[in-house]
Amino acid sequence: MFSLFRSFCQWLFLLSLLLCVSVVKAQTSATPAFISDNLVVYLHSGPGNQYRIIGTLTAGSSVLRLAEEEGYVQVQTEDNRSGWLPKEHLSLTPGLRAQFTELQSRFEQQSVRLTELEQDSGQGQQVVQRLTLERDQALAELEQLKRTNERLSNELDAQQASFWQQPMVLGGAILLFGLLFGLILPKLIPQRRNSDRWM
Predict the structure, then answer these.
(1) What is the pTM for the complete model shown?
(2) Domain count of the chain?
(3) CA dihedral 113, 115, 119, 122 (to 10 degrees)
């Protein structure tokens, strides 16, 4: 009697273990999927048309694919309902509605980015205009400084030329030159010895 109870417990333990493994396997094999582009898909309580309809799914709805049996797929909806539907109504890629929604979202993001770039471009053009104006002002100031420098150089040259043209300066320079010439020239020319003299 004890051995019969023991074997029954063993079978019960193995059965529960197998059931747990199958549940875990079913949960880990859940993959995201989408309802294909049919307008409405019926959700059945079992894998076949003979099972009662427990709800409908619209095209593009996002579901989790749990299991597959006899051409039917068990899915879990976003509101945690579970049911079966024909395999041909399920797709691993988003439907046209989901793709349209994603493209519309990306278009709105790109539009916002384009608006930001246009604003940045306008600000950049203002900066370029301001820098161009500052450059033109700096070039005008540089040109004015060049003209002032040229005028001052001409005035300095004129003053130096007029200094040497004054009569007193010119006479003083000639006198100084003659004095130096008179003092240095006798020292440079050797004197002739008198041959009549004895040593």
Answers:
(1) 0.37
(2) 2
(3) 110
